[in-house]
Every structure is written in structure tokens, then in C-alpha cells.
Amino acid sequence: MVDDLSRSDDRQIPDGAKFIELRVHDIAEVLTPGAGFDAVLHFAGLIAAGESMHHPEWHWDNNTRASLALLDAMRAAQVNKLVFSSTAAVYGEPTELPLVETSPTNPVNTYGDTKLAIDRAIASFTRASETFGAISLRYFNGAGAHDCGDGTMIGERHDPETHLIPLALDAAIGRADKFSLFGDDYLTADGTCVRDYIHITDLARAHLLALDVIHPGEHKIYNLGNGIGFSNRQVIEAIREVTGMPFDVETAPRRPGDPATLYASSELAQTELGWKPEKLDIVDIVRDAWRFHQQSS
After folding, report:
1. Residue 222 catalytic?
2. Residue 34 exposed, middle or buried by CB count within 10 Å (0-12, 13-18, 19+)
3. What is the pLDDT of residues 95-121, one digit of tens each?
4. From 91, 111, 139, 197, the catalytic residue
5. How remote is the C-alpha of 160 from its chain's centroid?
């Protein structure tokens, strides 16, 4: 496991896991010929769409430049399997819903631009190799928390935190004075953005299933979605229901680069990966996130 801990910490590294603190830019230091690696699961990168519009240089460097270094290192080390955590942000404002793998790609923020650039680079590397194969998984908000089975949970812990559910949970327990809702004038049923929420345990399962179906010289793309979306207001109400705590919500201006409605179909992933999300209800997703939040408070 490699991470530079620039946006996280080491509190959730599993016991027994080998951890190396390193930037992905420098991955060739450890991903070397004969090192014994069979595949790479690539989750590293910056993920805040709003931030990407204010600091595009951070995202092009951390997402795209670092991923090119990873691809070079994999080729040199002859590690020929890659599963890449992409994003449905590559589609931009949708022309059809739910999003499918053949939907037009037209990102509206720098974050989506960088992820699409990596997808295209991966496709180039697979076309140029008879041995290298890859799968990109495109999804939106990974949420909830994973139950390790021993009473501990693994969940979201970003620094700075930008995701709706942990920020709203902070407001619910009084760690934050209020929750900021960015925009209430979108062309949606309640005026707030609509997004796909996928439980992180379902996401983890999809990545492992993808490893088993990678073929040399092939780059496949799969959307991971629940087929429906939840608005920001629906998520806030789920948090109030789960926690039983009222909290102040302040309407703030829209963030640049935020599409109104985005949710994806996972039909192809269900057919070819044998994957199906098991936790679809936003209340169940929030409930697991709340359990983790209480542990980490």
C-alpha cells in the first residue's frame, strides 16, 4: 500500500498491511522489476471538483502526471494488470440518464478533465502492449463505511473534508456550526444537486472482481451506479433521520463545475463483472457512515 498521506492519515491502514509513504510520482522506487507485484489498484489522486476549478495545477499534477509515472513504472516492471478508480465526472452535464459507458464524455470541471486524460492514457498503453490490460471503474460518491467484523469501521477521513455526508455529520454532532448547501436553484425536483451514492464495501468488491476479468491488450470501462440518484436535500434528511439530531443548513452559492444531475447505470458491470450493489438505500449508507463518525469523533 502506497500513499503520501497528503489528504489522509495512517489511522486506517489495516494491521499487517505493508505501507510505504511515497508520492505516486515516485512509484518507480518500489514498483521495480522482480519486486513480486502482480497488479495495481490505483485509487490515488485529488477528488474535489470545486477545488479543481480553483487549483487546476494541483489536479493535473497529482492526478495526471503521477498516473503517467505509474504507467511508465508498470511497463518497466512488467506489471500488467491495472484497475483504475475513474469517475463519472468525465461525462459532464448528461444528455441521457442514467449514464452508460457510451455516453458522451465532456467534463465540466478540471477534476473530470484529469480523470478522462488518464483513461485515455491507459487506453493508449493497452493498445501499445500485447501483455498489459486495464479496467477503469467510473462512479460517483463513494460513501458509508466498511465494517471490519471486529467492531471497527473504515470510513471517510479527508483533510480537508469536502464530501457532503461527513460534513453534514460534523454539523449534526456540533463539530461544525452549520452545514453549507451549495446551490438550491438547479433544475431538479428540489433545486439541489442529484448524485449517485455507492457504499464503499460495494465499490471494493467491484475492484476485486475487475482484477479477474482483465485481458491483455484491452482497456475496459465500467460504470458503477445504483441506477437512481439522491438529491442533497434527501441526503440531509437521511442524516437527520439516522442521527436524530437537527442541525442548521445554510444555502451557499453554487460551486463552479457542479453538474445538476448525475447518476449511472451499472448494467454492463453486472453482466460482465458479476457485480451488483447490495446497499442501495441512502439511509443504510448514512447509518454506516454515522457509526464510523461516532468512532472517530
Report:
1. no
2. exposed
3. 889 999 999 999 999 999 999 999 999
4. 111
5. 16
